[in-house]
Each structure stands twice: as structure tokens, then as C-alpha cells.
Recover the amino acids of this structure.
């Protein structure tokens, strides 16, 4: 098209034939080969993402089926439990024989076993769906990077073709000089990075906020009919299950972090792909920990409501959202907070990412990272009497007394029990103090202790 309107003399037929042959060999053929090669690669990448998405949808469907089955088994178990505990209510005035009582007890045991199996299947389906979501998200981000590389390769090929085109028409002589200069000016302005950014600005969607579907068990719905004692026992079993998985995931995360630290200290220890796989695994473990932490916090809140205690605080509480599924059942969703979301690997934000990760691992200074039982109402009232100035003043006390129990979640922390007297040696991170307890040195949250005045015995 750039040659339209140019008037060549009759003697320029041969040069134009040479130009046509040169454009075909140096421009058209390389572009066609590049397009054919990229088409197959793009199709393979897109089909991989579609396949993972179908797997995620299948896991979500299995999760919904398991949830309905678990809730149905829970309702059936409640009926069987009530009949077994109060057989007179179902006898309609007639006396029940030992055989009838044995049948009721057998039904109760079968219903309880079915409920245990259904809840285990539902929990397994929830975890499997979350793992499938993480795998799909990982592949989605990887595919985005590969597609960006393909687009950069395509733009570079177009730029190179444009330059070759300019070189070809530059040989036509004075008549094509002006056209060649214009094309060369445009070829010099080719900027792949700017083109990619412009494409992002024009076609970019809203920021991606991953959502984790947390398991919602029958016992968590206070509106569902269930004896308080059985509800409490069911919730405590759920807490034990979640705590067991949390401990397993934390140990796995520590192992992967050690490997990542070895890579950072000795880059030659592993190639770039191995380091990238370790970072991806670490990211998945962080999101799995958030999934389990949010699930445990949700169960703790229900248990606290049953016992008349205030809800325990948690850093992820503000990111929880309750919805209703198509069957009208409650569905709690964790919108993955920004500090746990994936970051582009090209961003030079390693320092800030390390700070965010450390903040999540240690938790805030109120001990939310690894609390034991939440403070009771009495201890909360006692904690309210402690002035904020006394807790966070610049001048540190020489001694302080623990108000609540605190379980250390990292090796450099101190575990506290209510009433322990700690010798304070200095301030560490904001809201954390460094002290000594029974010959052990470490960090502890300042909001869990009360300053002791000099000369006064612990109260």
C-alpha cells in the first residue's frame, strides 16, 4: 500500500520485479512462518487453560453435591439422635420393646457414621476444589506470561519485517527515497514494551480478586435444628481437623521456604525454572494456609457464639463474605487479600513482598498469627483497663505480666501463659517486645501483657 501512488518510469519494471521477489522472500515468508508457528502454540496454551477450567468446574460441582449430601445427612442424624434420646416422643403412646430400642440405636449409629463420612467427603471436596483453583490460577498466570512473550515475538517479527521492507524499497532509487524515509521513521519508533502496555490499557479488565469457597458444615448454621451439645462437639471436631491440616501445611511451607532461601543465597544451586516452581509452590501454600485459617476462624466464631463469648479477631475477617448458593445454603467466600495475591514476576518488588510475607507469617502484634483460645469476657474486661499509652509508650517497662495465653508461631517468639512475668529488654517490630521468660529469650505481642510498676508484686 505504501507503493500506491508512486509513478515509476517504464524502465523500472525490472527493479520492481526484484522488489517483489525480495518482499516475498524477506518479508512475506518469514511473517507467514511466524504466524503458523505461533498459531499452534497459542492453541495449545489456550486449550491447556480451558482443560484446567473444566477440571475446576467439575470440582466445584462435586463440592456442591457433597455439601448437599452432608447437610441432608446432618438433618437425618439430628432426627435419629432425637429419636434415640427421646424414644417416648416417637412411640405415640405405646410401649417400646427392647427390639424397638435396639433398632433406634442402630439407626442412630448408622446416621452418625453416614454424617461423619459425608462431612469428610465434603471437606475433601472443598480442599480438592481449592487445589484445582490454585492450579488453574497458576496455569492462567503462566499462560498469560507465555502469551505476552508470543505477542512480543510477533511484534518484533513485524518490526523486523518493516525494517526489511524499508531496506528493499530504499534500493529503488530517488523515486522511492521519500517513501523509504517515512517507513524508516516508523520502524525506528517501534517499541514492543509500549505496545504491550497500550494493549493492556485498551483491553485490560478489572483487577483479578481470587475467591476461595470455604467449607460450610451443617453444624455452623445456627438456624438449622441441632442439639447445642452435639453442635459444640461437631464444631470441636472440625477445629481439630482444621488444626491438623494447618500444622501439616505450615510444616510444608517451612520446608519450601528453606529451599527458597537456599536458592536466594546460592543462585547457582538451581536453575531459573526450579526457582520459579519453588516460588509458585510457596504462593500456593500461602493461599492454602489462608483457606484453612479462614475456615478455622469461621468455626471459632460460631463456637464463640454458642458459648456466649465475643468473636475472636483475625486478619482475614474483613475479607470474608457470606452468600447463598442456588439451593439457599450458606456459602462463605474468602476474597484473597492483596498481600496473598500473585504478583507479576517482572516487578522489582522483592523487598516489599518480603515485608508482606513476614507480616503475614508473624501476624499482627495482637497475637492473631497463632493464638490459643481467644481471650474470655473476663480477660477482655481486664485488658480494657490497660491503657494504650502504657502498652505502646516509647519508654519500656522493666517487667510485665501476661494477660492472655499466647502460643509462639515462630522460633524467635515466646509462648506466654496468663500470669507469666516477663523481663522486658527492648522493642522489636512495632507492637512486639523482646524479653526473657524462664531463661528463654524471644518476641511477644505487647497487647498481651500488662506493665508492672517497679516494686509491686504480680497481681
Amino acid at each position: 500500500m505504501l507503493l500506491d501512488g508512486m509513478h515509476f518510469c517504464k524502465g523500472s519494471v525490472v527493479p520492481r520485479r526484484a522488489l517483489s521477489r525480495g518482499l516475498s522472500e524477506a518479508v512475506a515468508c518469514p511473517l507467514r512462518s511466524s504466524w503458523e508457528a505461533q498459531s499452534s502454540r497459542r492453541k495449545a496454551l489456550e486449550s491447556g487453560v480451558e482443560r484446567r477450567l473444566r477440571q475446576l468446574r467439575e470440582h466445584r460441582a462435586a463440592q456442591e453435591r457433597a455439601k448437599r449430601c452432608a447437610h441432608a445427612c446432618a438433618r437425618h442424624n439430628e432426627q435419629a439422635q432425637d429419636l434415640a434420646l427421646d424414644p417416648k416422643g416417637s412411640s405415640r403412646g405405646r410401649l417400646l420393646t427392647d427390639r424397638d430400642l435396639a433398632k433406634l440405636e442402630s439407626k442412630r449409629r448408622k446416621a452418625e457414621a453416614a454424617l461423619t463420612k459425608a462431612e469428610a467427603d465434603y471437606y475433601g471436596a472443598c480442599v480438592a476444589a481449592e487445589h484445582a483453583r490454585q492450579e488453574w490460577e497458576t496455569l492462567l498466570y503462566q499462560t498469560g506470561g507465555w502469551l505476552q512473550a508470543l505477542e512480543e515475538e510477533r511484534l518484533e517479527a513485524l518490526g523486523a519485517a518493516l525494517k526489511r521492507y524499508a531496506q528493499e524499497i530504499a534500493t529503488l532509487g530517488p523515486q522511492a527515497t521519500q517513501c523509504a524515509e517515512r517507513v524508516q521513521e516508523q520502524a525506528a519508533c517501534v517499541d514492543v514494551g509500549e505496545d504491550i502496555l497500550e494493549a493492556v490499557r485498551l483491553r485490560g479488565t478489572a483487577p483479578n480478586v481470587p475467591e476461595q469457597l470455604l467449607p460450610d458444615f451443617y453444624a455452623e448454621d445456627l438456624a438449622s435444628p441441632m442439639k447445642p451439645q452435639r453442635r459444640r462437639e461437631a464444631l470441636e471436631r472440625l477445629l481439630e481437623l482444621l488444626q491438623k491440616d494447618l500444622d501439616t501445611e505450615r510444616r510444608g511451607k517451612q520446608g519450601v521456604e528453606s529451599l527458597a532461601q537456599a536458592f536466594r543465597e546460592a543462585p547457582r544451586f538451581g536453575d531459573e525454572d526450579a526457582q520459579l516452581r519453588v516460588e509458585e509452590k510457596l504462593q500456593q501454600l500461602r493461599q492454602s494456609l489462608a483457606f484453612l485459617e479462614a475456615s478455622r476462624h469461621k468455626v471459632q466464631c460460631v463456637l464463640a457464639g454458642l458459648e456466649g463469648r465475643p468473636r475472636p479477631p483475625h486478619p482475614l475477617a474483613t475479607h470474608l463474605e457470606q452468600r447463598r448458593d442456588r439451593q439457599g445454603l450458606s456459602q462463605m467466600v474468602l476474597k484473597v487479600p492483596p498481600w496473598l495475591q500473585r504478583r507479576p514476576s517482572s516487578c522489582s518488588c522483592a523487598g516489599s513482598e518480603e515485608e508482606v510475607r513476614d507480616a503475614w507469617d508473624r501476624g499482627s502484634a495482637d497475637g492473631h498469627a497463632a493464638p490459643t483460645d481467644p481471650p474470655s469476657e473476663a480477660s477482655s474486661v481486664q485488658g480494657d483497663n490497660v491503657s494504650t499509652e502504657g502498652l505502646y509508650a516509647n519508654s519500656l517497662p522493666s517487667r510485665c505480666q501476661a494477660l492472655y495465653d499466647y502460643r509462639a508461631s515462630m522460633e524467635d517468639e515466646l509462648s506466654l501463659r496468663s500470669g507469666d512475668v516477663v523481663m522486658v529488654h527492648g522493642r522489636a517490630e512495632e507492637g512486639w517486645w523482646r524479653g526473657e521468660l524462664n531463661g528463654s529469650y524471644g518476641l511477644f505481642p505487647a497487647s498481651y501483657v500488662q506493665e508492672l510498676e517497679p516494686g509491686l508484686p504480680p497481681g
Notes: The chain has a mean pLDDT of 76.
